[in-house]
Design brief:
Helix content is 38%, strand content 26%.
């Protein structure tokens, strides 16, 4: 077992502290399901409160670092070479409906490269972590992507564009092209956890379009450090929120080919 670095310990500590607040609020949002007002405003407040906790902890331990935040946008630091990329609640719709599948995602970018990432699932107490060139871990266990090579054996995760997002027809074309070739397709509602579950070998591939950098920055690093591939629809090995196509080394190229056939 590789010990986590001081940096990762700081990031994990921040995630756990924010998670305690989210867990308390999750209990409240379950009760709010029966109210006429509904829980939307409450969840927005929970999201922002978790973000504040994350920023406070990280600022104290790494003063001067900048931030890219889902709720508050870009915050410049005195150290222009470092910034934390944070999603305090990935899976907001699940949280809103009292579905216990959501996560906290923190990545550190250094000179434009993602060098560390933490994704915490507070409902299962699963802490995914990785540093560049140092491997990926779930709690104390080293992660490795699955070894499945055949699409017929593969479980693929995805995200479906919701109301107000573009690309519904294109998604259905891609789904129609992919589903006859795979064991199953899953849509659970947290891009960060989709990537981490891929890194853990639970999924074999993943694709999604039109997401945000804070959704995938940490998870993409965790996949790569677990031996997986993350790229776009041109085959470039990049983290492009316009489209993420990820998988183990055998499945990812096949998934990429099917997506491109769907759009030919």
């Amino acid at each position: 077992m590789a010990q986590a670095s001081a940096l990762l310990n700081i990031m994990m500590d921040a995630a756990r502290k924010a998670a305690r607040k989210l867990n308390r609020d999750f209990g409240e949002v379950e009760n709010l399901q029966v109210s006429k007002k509904g829980p939307a405003d409450f969840v927005s407040a929970a999201d922002k409160a978790a973000e504040r906790i994350l920023v406070e902890v990280l600022e104290e331990k790494r003063p001067g670092y900048g931030f890219l935040l889902e709720e508050s946008g870009a915050v410049k630091g005195t150290d222009p070479s470092h910034r934390f990329i944070i999603d305090p609640l990935d899976g907001t719709t699940n949280f809103l409906h009292a579905i216990p599948h959501f996560s906290i995602s923190i990545a550190l970018e250094r000179e434009g490269e993602i060098v560390a990432g933490v994704v915490y699932d507070p409902m299962r107490d699963e802490m995914f972590r990785a540093e560049r060139f140092k491997g990926a871990f779930l709690n104390d266990r080293r992660l490795e992507v699955s070894s499945r090579a055949l699409m017929a054996d593969a479980v693929i995760a995805t995200g479906i564009p919701h109301m107000g997002r573009p690309g519904h027809a294109r998604f259905l074309k891609e789904l129609h092209r992919i589903t006859p070739h795979v064991a199953s397709v899953r849509r659970f509602g947290s891009a960060a956890l989709d990537l981490c579950w891929l890194a853990a070998g639970r999924y074999d591939g993943y694709w999604e379009r039109n997401i945000q950098l804070w959704d995938v920055a940490a998870g993409a690093l965790i996949v790569r450090e677990a031996g997986g591939l993350v790229g776009d629809d041109t085959g470039e090995n990049t983290i492009d929120p316009a489209i993420i196509i990820a998988g183990n080394a055998q499945i990812q190229p096949q998934l990429l080919a099917l997506i491109n056939k769907a759009n030919a």
